Amino acid sequence: MEDITNSAFRRICKSMGADVLVSEFVSSEALIRNVQKSFDKMDFDESERPFGIQIFGHDENSLVKAALVAEEQHPDFIDINWGCPVKKVVNKGAGAAILKDIPKMIACTKSVVNAVKLPISVKTRLGWDMSDLPIVTIAEKLQDVGIQAITIHGRTRSQLYSGVANWTLIEEVKNNPRIQIPIIGNGGINSGEKAVLYQKRYGVDALMIGRAAIGNPWIFTEIKCAFENKAFTAPNLDERISVMLQHLKNHVASVNERKACLEFRKHYAGYFKGVNHFKKVRLELMKALSFDEIEKILLNNNINI
Fold first, then answer.
1. Catalytic residue check, 84
2. Which long-range contacts (CB under 8 A, 24 or more apart) does 159-166 make?
């Protein structure tokens, strides 16, 4: 979710029912080198609470220093990402690369827990590949060094985001009598119906939604409705346009307008999925470099669902 889950996006998700928000992941190495972009990623609005700053890295000392810097921003918790499968992260020994060195994962996590006063959570995967799935042991060891919650993505690093997420091992962790911390399930939740089914089937304490929210922040409303046995009405085109423009307006307020419009291009496909004859409109939007221009394109074109 790099370059997706900025404050503008998170506030839209919060308005749609998201309960807990987490920052884009912040490089520990960049943070301790005072890279401004990394500090910008930690910015959040008070309306986003409860809010966690997510850090990643491969060096124990750098992770500790980064956690201390993150703590100074006064989030509600700090999350360590031991699950990102992206090649450029893994090649540096960070993210899911740590799944090949569990003792180092535990040692690094313990040092961060001991260094800060805030609660520490961890996100990780089932294992590096299907030949080694140590998540049950990992969860126990992480709990033993003091983390307060663990999010488990039901795939290995080798799977990246392909195939079907395997929740049976997440269930095994949850049912482990030694485990007392909350278990958060992640992977493949893309509807309210599936959210209810998976929560009941696998018994997790909470669900983490990632890619399913890109261009579809209504996923949180849909899930809340499903758990409350209420009907969910999908947004019509006017609602999609209104929310998308608010999302963009939030982002323009955080960065310069041209940069915001360029960065926003990745959201159009999601917000207008299923809209008839949208290709022509999307091409116009991709050229637009101001909020007013984008608003005019959307309001003046004859598009429909």
1. yes
2. 159/85, 160/85, 161/85, 161/211, 164/188, 166/126
Task: Compute the distance between CA of residue 110 and CA of residue 63 in angstroms, rounded to an integer.
Answer: 11
Query: Strand, helix or coil at 54?
Result: strand
pLDDT of 121-143, one tens digit each? 999 999 999 999 999 999 999 99
- What is the helix (H) or strand (E) element at residue 244, kind and residue range? helix 237-254
**Given the residues 84, 108, 225, 261, the one annotated as active site:** 84
Model pTM greater than 0.85?
A: yes
Q: Please, what's the b/e burial string for 141-152 (b: 16 or more CB within 10 A of its CB; e: otherwise)? A: bbbebebebbbb
Which tokens is 161 given?
């985001």
Domains within the chain, CATH numbers bracketed:
7-227 (3.20.20.70), 237-300 (1.10.1200)
182: left (phi over 0), alpha (psi -120 to 50) or beta: beta
